[in-house]
Amino acid sequence: MGVPVLAETSRIPFPQTPPPAPLKKPKVFLGQPRDIVPPACPGQFPGTPPVTDMDYGGIPLWINRLLGEPSVLSLQGRMDRAWFRASNPQTCPEQCDCPIQWETSLYCDHRALENIPEGLPQRTQYLFLQGNNISSLSYSALANITNLRWLIIDNNQLKSDKLELNSLQNQTQLRYFFANRNYLTSVPGGLPAGLKQLRLANNHISSISPGAFQNLQNLTLLLLQGNRLQTMTGDDVKGLVGLNLLDVSGNLFSAVPRHLPPSVQQLYLSNNSFSGLHEGSFEGFHNLKYLRLSHCGLQSEGIHPQAFNHSSLVELDLSYNKLTTIPRFPTTLQYLYLEANRIQEFNVTSFCREVGPLSYSRMKILRLDGNKLTYHQLPPDWVYCLRVLQRIYI
Asked: Which stretches of sequence are listed as region Disordered (predicted)?
């Protein structure tokens, strides 16, 4: 059984009925943090590596070797192409490499190709086309192969008006379709029902084709960050009953989209411009565990006291906003990032409405660095509320 693709923090166990915890002094880090929990997506915090043309949408790709999935996504600079041809007697298009180690993989990436090579071998299951100049995708280009599982066509010139509606319909085995960093203006329709990952980050997408997701009940990961979406309705996402991770960061939303799939556990909304968060902004997200809201221009007066009242939340990122006070959070929250705001005071009631043997915050990591707040401003009773805190940055 394959390993699901989740952010690193998704491995954190979530206690349902934690026992009483003894008081334990947390590690306090003053000033610039050096040993921090990394963000789930590159580029969120200063010092993280810049997003490159090989980031595949910013979410790691986990390989299932038991299924024969290739552990190398590009052969560029690894070995002389002549070696591949000499060691593999099987047919291979002139513009591609066919390593004998992965006989069902076809590496045609970074060749300045303007079209998908002709005569693709029927054995092809993993097709790598990233880093070319391909502008169209037609049914005929892939007609010779019917067992395709991965199609990676990142960093090309792909355009919506040159993407045939039925180009992928016969690819019933297709599980991953990556088309990040192209020139698509809408989410394509006619995608195969077995698709598990759809990565369309950093395109020019401003709309979703009617019924584009209607048959994608198996989709677990959808990346749409870095596009031009302004709205997303219930009809737009109809059919996404198994979606786990949704990234719509860096779009043009002015409010949290309503009627998103309730199955979502990881929701990334950073780099949008939200006027505020009301009580029902995340209504219906009964499974939501990881929420990213950094760089959204949020202000304290625009956040309803019950906006984050979701006991399922494990991690919340509110960094790089304009908060002057700490909002209220559920006691079940374990990881909170509030760095680079304008917070001037620390209120224990933001984390604990009351303190007792079983009434305390389960917070483990708290970042407050980059605010107008010092360690000496913390009230003396904060350790009774945050009694299981492991690290605080201030």
From this structure: 1-25
